Give the backbone structure.
Amino acid sequence: MLTQVAAAQIHGESITEAATGTTQILTILHTNDIHGHIEADATVSDGATIGAARYKSIINSYEAKGNVLVFDAGDATHGTNFATLSDGENIISLMNDLGIDGFVPGNHDFNYGFTQLKKLQSLAAFPVLAANVTEDAAGTDPFTSNKIFDMGTYQVGVFGLATPETKTKSNPLNTTGVTFTDVVATANAQVAALKAAGADVIIMLSHLGEDAASPINTFTVTSQVAGIDLIIDGHSHTVLPAGRQEGSTMIVSAGEYMQNIGHVEITVDTTAQDVTGITANLITFEGSQAYAADPAVAAKITALDAGNNAVLSVVVGKTATELDGLRQNVRTGETNLGNLITDAMIAESGADVALTNGGGIRASITAGDITMGQVLTVLPFGNLLTVIRVTGQDIINALTFGVSDYPNSAGKFPHVAGMTYQIVLNASGNKVANVLIAGVPIDPAKTYKLATNDFMAVGGDGYTMFAGKEQVSLDGSLADILAAYITKLSAPTGALTYVKENRVAVVLAAPTAVPTVTTPAAADIVQTGEYDGYTMQIGIALVLTAAALVFIVEKSKKVSSRK
């Protein structure tokens, strides 16, 4: 693809050297996977948020001392009500105020559609860097490939790589006519072009991540591309407190939701025109409290919030128990919130079964009143409830795919209603067993009505077995449907109560087989006798738990060996 090389003076300001002689220090501040969490929040149960106003003061403080570049590694514009009610435009406006120097689009930045992402690029005062994305119809590169920053006595070359998983980890319709080129070939070409243009420091903005389940990740690049000094990574929400050294490349990642600000110092020998050292650390929420919130940015956030509150503050119901939407939990197993959502899908649609992906559940709801704002935070993607006609074998295939990474966290993990299933752990590949629909073993040859979201209905998150299926109905906003269901359940007693119901169970090996439906098409399901998790004897449970821990440890060793 086209190789672009552009030069710029940082913020148009004069540069104050951060060291003397031939050694200079370049400071990098970075974020990733903030998912619209631009407002400060010290009360979040799974990690306090620093917020843009305080981040602006941090940036100002470092810029007063010397050379600074500020980057974001993607998934910034989507994920909270603050972001989604403006289709990401409020986030871009605040990133402009922060003085961001470069941004690589993450898969969720495509969630508003490709046309809107290009509009967001037009509103940005910084380059959107993605060297591996082409627009088929135009035959051109819709984003900037790279940029060179002139630091006075040395030059910094930066390029971006977007994840090819965007094809399935955003609605596939959002990338129709868009191609993601080979990341290794693209990275090698970008490094060569930047060095030829005089770059002394090479930085890659990456939305590839470290997840072992991703067939193309950041390690794909580091294992095959030389010459990159620093990779600022996103996508996997990884926290690297001191960075990760991979050969001659330092990888940094600050976690998620602006809970940390990444801080890197690069030592440059301006005589040798070379990097002589890189150190990395995180500015945590606690560390950020030494900086006052920038008043102008804080005032802008307050003003933007005021316009949203009329919608977000409406109370739709009440819960007596916390509804669990924690990322680690919804991506590894059944939760009461997943049950509530899927039950709402069946209640609205009248489908036989419901299946939704854990990655679409983005937050918990604490006990107490539930506002429309909380519902939209849980389900921020604007998905529509969709009913499709599928076979029992399609459902088996979907469940088998959805649990294939278990016990590792994966956004595709299937939450269900109208059915139950077992995950059969197997080092050579997990299977599913005892799939029951309305208490009856699934028939692989039978046709069922399945309620899901419009993202998955067209093959999103890798559920390609659903793509092209007959659409029975399109039933409106999933967030609105959930809100109405919460209102209905809250009415009788004033507050709803939801629990896990053993819809998903885990076993180490298939129990003694009891034939139910025998068909060659059912190769991916282990048909077994009925399993009652509530009456399992304590001794058997302890044995299975101990054995499961051994399995998880062994599987985790395989995963961690790549990092």
In short: The longest strand covers residues 274-284. Residues 7-305 form a domain with the Purple Acid Phosphatase; chain A, domain 2 fold (CATH 3.60.21.10).
